[in-house]
Amino acid sequence: MGVINTSLSLSVEQTPRKIQKKNVSEFVVNNVDYITVPHLNQNTLKTSYKSVSQLSDVYGVDPSRVIPHIGARSITSKKDLTESINNFKGLGVEKLLLVGGNPSQPMGPYRDAESVRRRVQEIHHNHFKLYCGVYPDTETASGIYLYKYEHFDGGFTQLSLSPRKLESFKINTRIGIPSQADLDGLYQYMKLCGVGPSLRYPMRNILGFARYMTPNGFNTTKLVQAIQPHSSFHIYDFGRIEKTVEDLLNLDI
Asked: Is 158 helix (H, G, I), strand (E, B) or coil?
């Protein structure tokens, strides 16, 4: 590997299943700034807690580098959220990503990221940095900065393949990008990782796939170059994650 590019800040999403099966790449966790753990439909927040613990115990990842997701509509009770927040704090977690989640109807008292944010602040005022999901294909940057970032410390974009839309999020936003998976892997992992609904939006933009898909997989570096000078990116692990991180670290920008 050549000279590492320190101008990019990278984070990578790793599912609880991948963590529990010990399929996480040591190269990846040692060369990105943060690892996020999604709160998937079939998992509880206790599963996320165990995943953070395992990243620390098995891979030596400082919990301050792990950002658990909290899916509002998947939380079953106020007690469930309170216990989980206390557990995360006890581990040393400092950042949380709050999203509405995949269920269309709440399984408990929380409907959206804002309702969870208020509860987190009640429990531990200003202990956590709180981030929200950003949806470039359905939200405007001006609306995000005016309404969401008034309450949150920043955000992570869900998948969009439009550099024009993504480059408008210039401050406090990690741009979500797919790893170098092939098209089938991209679709399958999207569903597995809980971002399946967002597939509807990039699929509307066939030109996006045509521009960045190659016989060797998705050209992640080309998408990153198109969004420059933005420097904070979040990689959705749809396959070939080591190659994706390595190529980005060696990107000449």
From this structure: coil
| 62, two tokens | 């400082």
**What digits encode the pLDDT tens for the residues 45-73?**
999 999 999 999 999 999 999 999 999 99
CA–CA separation, 221 and 240 (whole Å): 13
Cα distances (Å, whole numbers) of residue 40 to 55, 100, 122, 139? 17, 11, 25, 23
The domain spans of the chain are: 9-249
Residue with tokens 């920008």: 253
Task: Quickly name the fold that domain 9-249 has.
Answer: TIM Barrel (3.20.20)
pTM of the predicted protein model: 0.90
Closest CA to 169 of 150, 198, 145, 137: 145
Determine the Cα angle at 195 with ends 218 and 7, to 5°.
Answer: 55
